[in-house]
Amino acid sequence: MVSLRLAAGCLAFRLADGFARNALLANQIMLFQHLCHFGTNTAQRAAKFLNAACAVTPLVVGAYQSRSGMKLSMLVLLGCVLEALCTATTAVVGASPDWALSWEPTIRPHESYAIVFVLTAYALGYGAVTSAMPVMTRRAAPEGSLCAGLMQAFVAVLSAGAIMGISAAALAQSYHEDHWALLSAVIALACGICFLPPIGGTPLPFARCILRLALRLGPEELALWEAREEATNRLLGTSTTPLGAASEQSLSQLMPLFWRLLLLVPFYGAAIQWTTSWYVQTAYLDRNVAGFKVPVCLLQAFERLMSLAALTLLRGTFVLKLKPSTRLSLGSFLAALSMFCSAGVEIWRRDWSQRLAGDPDISSLTVLWLLPQFALIAAAEAFVYPASAEFVSASTWHYGLGCLVQAAAVAMLGLVLGQLQDWIPESSPNDGHYDKFFACVGAACLIATVLFLAFPFSSSSMSALR
């Protein structure tokens, strides 16, 4: 059934989950390098494969949920437990020199098995939460403007949580105590799950306050929402369409959606850079700004802040009335601009700027020159993610299909990096050509921009997929 308390609980949990994920993933390149003794190229590949695994598991978990009939709330609980356990394990290993892998010159077989197990378990937990939360949140509100507003707030609180999580990671990094950020992520998950059943729930007065702030609702709208709670029974229900029927539909109806999602592959390739290759690029720039040394991961918080600002600015404009294909085209174009911008900065950093005195590997070019590319990719995400979500969030199965394409794009990029040692070396980026890599991704985004314009589609043309 429609539930005001569940809607508020979903927002509160999503805020905590956004904090926890980004507190862990903000410095994932550094964690792979320090704990696993990976080189720069291998660390980036590992991060991309982890992101691909996290992106593909929503399809697997969504298919399982559709077949088994598991309650969405129980799926979120299991996913949250897996995320917390894996994050806590990483924190303990990072805080205990006797357990860390950095003191060994190479990784022993049993240690590599442990790494794979932890990453797989985390990806499963990530997939469980990611596949269930959008569907459960959508079912918590009445159809219409209240549901649309709730889904917009759902995306916004995730970005807000990400900003706090990245900031926590940056603060811990500045004190060389990265494990404290991970431990705070575990605490955040434990607090967040208390807002959802079956562990606890959100008290009604607190739920009203959350929805007033997040959705800007007045007393009359909240009263209408509460009056609708007894009208339907969709709170924790499962999909009424069996998996077999969904599979049959996918053969005849999902192909138009699927090939359009394939056009987003270049965008996904660009979007993953701000947590991987741009992380490395940041580390080799002058990070001293007004006497403050900017932590490497802090620009990711700027990206999330710009994404939140773009989502807020677009909410009341004509842009949201454009066809999804038009918005996807605009997002792909902005992603292309961000990649070309990063390529230009990389050439300047590597070839045209001097090196810092006492540190010949670090460019004297200020890290502030990276802000435009982070802002551009944030704006691209504000166009692409809401537009693509319009026709993939109807069920865990459809949502998983969109995640599958994203996973394939990131995994393919990880495989390609293994063949680009001359461009993305294991050592310093000063020895490679990151600019050529960025330019190729940007060119692919431009091609996708043209194709989205050449083959337009509207929301109504995709209504059969819902």
Provide the fold topology.
Elements: H1 4-25, H2 28-36, H3 40-68, H4 72-95, H5 109-139, H6 145-174, H7 178-193, H8 204-215, H9 219-228, H10 243-252, H11 255-262, H12 265-271, H13 277-283, E1 288-289, E2 292-293, H14 298-315, H15 324-352, E3 355-356, E4 359-363, H16 371-389, H17 396-417, H18 434-454
Antiparallel strand pairs: 1-2, 3-4
Helix pairs in contact: 1-4, 1-5, 1-6, 1-7, 1-8, 2-3, 3-5, 3-17, 4-5, 4-7, 5-6, 5-17, 6-7, 6-14, 12-15, 12-17, 12-18, 14-16, 15-16, 15-18
Keywords: Membrane, Transmembrane, Transmembrane helix
Subcellular location: Membrane
Organism: Durusdinium trenchii
Q: Average pLDDT value? A: 84
Might you state the CATH topology name of the largest domain? Growth Hormone, Chain: A
- Helix-and-strand structural type: mainly alpha
Cα separation of the termini: 20 Å
Strand count, sense and barrel status of the largest sheet are: 2 strands, antiparallel
Contiguous uncertain segments of 5+ residues? 99-105, 232-252, 460-466
Please give the count of helices.
18
**What is the architecture of the largest domain at the second tier of CATH?**
Up-down Bundle
Summed up, the domain count is 2
Q: Give the beta-strand count.
A: 4
